[in-house]
Amino acid sequence: MDILSLFIIVPIVTVLVLIFTKSLKQARLVAMIGSIIQLGMAINLLFAYLAEKVHNDDIMVFTRDVVWFKPFNIHYSIGVDGISVSLLLLTAIVVLAGVFISWKMFDLPKEFFISLIVLSLGVYGVFISIDLFTLFVFFEIAVIPMYLLIGIWGSGPREFAAMKLTLMLMGASAVLLVGILGIYFNSNADGGPLTFNILEIAQVHIPVVAQKLFFPLVFIGFAVISALFPFHTWSPDGHSSAPTAVSMLHAGVLMKLGGYGVFRVAMYLLPEGTLHWSWFFIILAAFGVIYGAFAAIRQTDLKYINAYASVSHLGLVLFALLSLNLTAWNGAIIQSLSHGLLTALFFAMIGMIYGRAHTREISKLGGMMKILPFIGAIYVITGLAYLGLPGFSGFVAEMNVFVGAFQHPDTFHRILSILVVSSIVVTAVYILRLVGKIMMGPLLTNDVEASTLPKVTWYEKTGLLLLMLPVIGIGVAPLWLSDMIMKSLEPFIHGVL
Amino acid sequence: MNMGNVLLMRQEVLLLAIILILVIAEIFMPQRKKSNNVHLALFLFGIHTIIGFLSINYGSLFGGMFHTNALIQFFKNVLNIGVFILLLQSADWVQEKIVQEKRGTEFFVLLFSSLLGMYFMISSGDFLMFYLGLELSILPIAALAAYEISKRISSESGIKLILSSSLASGTALFGISILYAVTGSIYFNDIVNNMTSSYMSILGLVLFFAGLGFKISLVPFHFWTADVYEGAPISIASYLSVISKGAAVFILMILLFVVLKPMIAVWDKMLYVVAIATMFIGNLFALRQQNMKRFLAFSSIAQAGFMLFGLIIGNRLGTATVVYFVLIYIFSNLAAFGVVQAISLHTGKENMKDYEGLYRTNPNLSLVMMLGLFSLAGIPPVAGFFGKFFLFTAAASKGYYFLVFLGVVNVTVSLYYYLLVVRAMFLRKSENAIPYFKNKLYMRLGLLVTAVGILVLGIYSPLYDYIFELSKNLY
User: Fold this and answer.
1) What's the complex ipTM?
2) B475 part of a folded domain
3) Which residues on A lie below 8 Å from B385 (Cβ)?
4) How many domains are contained in chain B?
5) Cα–Cα distance between B71 and A334 in angstroms, integer?
């Protein structure tokens, strides 16, 4: 058994075991063990990858290729590079933290954890696929459990939010399907066979007309899940209605599929299309950054703030990708990792606060630092990391992004870059305002005696620390990570630039 | 004609034998043991289904009127499997409701007769045999649609079906006679050689297509579908929507790809328009349906639109993807219809509102329903996704990207109404949810087979490879 297929098999086994569990205790135990194994595998993969890379110079390592549908030349084809390895590790961390945060999921626990694990299965699958068909299958597997997760265990207008999210994401992936078929039927442009294999297609010179035609389809198909403006509207509704662990997983991991797909499929396979369209989509991305930041200022619900902040920060990922240079790309990948951890932390803590104070309205919260010092401290650290304070992962990411974006000499990119940089200030406004009001402000609770609020439990602490450690780790020692990612980016640069 | 030749018709002969055995059993079985006929019919048909997979020689009979090959045999097996699952699912209904009215055996006799008609239809080598098969396949179904004689709506549905289908087959017959006038023959082989694209032959093609389009319930020949499905017994509605539709698509494929191949420049445009209209009309009307049978009726109209994606390209890839899709569609739709039937049998409830909170009382039924609906919607990893993806691939292979785009838009629309049912079952909680009930053995088997099929058929790729291999020789 190869090291990568285990990322598919372990979740399947976990789900199969979960089917036979009878109670919450059993279900969460099984889910926890399954996720710990996954995390172990992800860490192991990281070291194996670093060791392998020393003597192996292929773009993808640990590859495995099995013919699946022969008449279409569809393969189950997997492999990883530095980008996928780091994103796999992120996924494993967030999933495990999500299981801890859902420790008290009393309503239909078995079904909840099954959906959660299936979702993670889809995400793992996307990150290891190098066959477009396989990738697309996993992409959709990752989306559909969201409907049940939000619809059954959500709060507020959950049915509406779940339907909106599912339809928008599935609609986007439907558009993506057309794009993928377009790439497939042009993959024989150099006289070879039709193929879905990403590495093989990258060697083919797809006709420029086709690239210009299909790039927008593929780009939008992936970017919707990264909340590209104006297709971001599913995100605030979806996140605010979703249960805590699902918000974490969705903002932390699922939305990363967008940037990943844009990079690995749209830009890598359609370089001419990228050059032709980048000016248009970079405007949308930049607008999303600024719009998301300003929208976050005006929100009064904690989850909505975080959802719009995600729109802003993931817009930054797309902006960096479309800036088309190595430094910015490096920043984009690190920003994906950093945002994944930080936003998961935020959603986890919002869930904890909501579970105790039964409100997410800023106006009804205050002085949390005195009542819940542990959460308060982590919240402040997370906030600071989020707005890009040096020493945390957010700084490393944004630094790279902006340095990269500024390398464009032309006025168009300069102006956009300056506008996007200014969003940092806006970010600081809504983060500091929050910290000031609900953490440090005067003690206010919603008709609950402050002293009766439940203490932070061990599983909540574990979940938070699990997410916090890598944030500090990336911030303090970023070089090995950015080295690993940079090496993996180099093969792409020849294609696009 | 020696015995070896008759073996080419083995499936037809065997099915005829089963029908005769059932008729004899009906006469000689004492009244109180009549319900055993249900077991007998199931048993015999099960054997028949298994025997169908034994390989036979291929060739033609009666001077080319009857014709069979590997793909046709495979498709007959597909129909057999579908009918067998359908029998499993409706056995309880027949035993509890129909046998009491002393009409149990006729149900099977009529159903098998209709299936026999489909065998002849897809094996036909000339238009005469084709027309006989077409008529034989629809007349017994009209009787079965009116089978619940105590219900007025059932009789209405039977009348509606027989009137509109005779109009349709009349139209088809007119088209055939024009084609005969143009080419001077009713044999498929001769027609291919003599066919020329003239206004006359186009008129023949269109009229003929209208007749078959009625059976597949393509827009604009779909008006009977929802009314008939709603009134007919559920097993007959599901028979109409999977078996009858599948067989009609298959023979339409043979006729278009082989007999009318010289006119591909005409009929691909026709299919293009009809496919778009069928998808949109089916989907848009399905959005607002409350009755589950009407809901599935419109959903099956929309699905027929997708089948045309494979037909439109007119080559081997199209054949393989359509046959594959029909096979998967049979399992998916039977899963949905099976659950509707189980619930209707135990509680008499058929509306979407009654399904609210079903998961908390009947989790297994809800899961089968969800699998079926996800497969119909085309969500991986269940089989329907692979069926649809390959159909889209087929259409894209000839450059119909815009059609594929409209197709995926429709997939998203259809996802909405399939999710409405999932919403009712899983998301909603209800005070008066359908209480827990236990299905009988046959029904449980019938649902289990569909669920396993939906989970396995897509991922298990050798199946598609096999179909693709068979598609080498369509006719």
Assistant:
1) 0.91
2) no
3) 137, 140
4) 1
5) 54
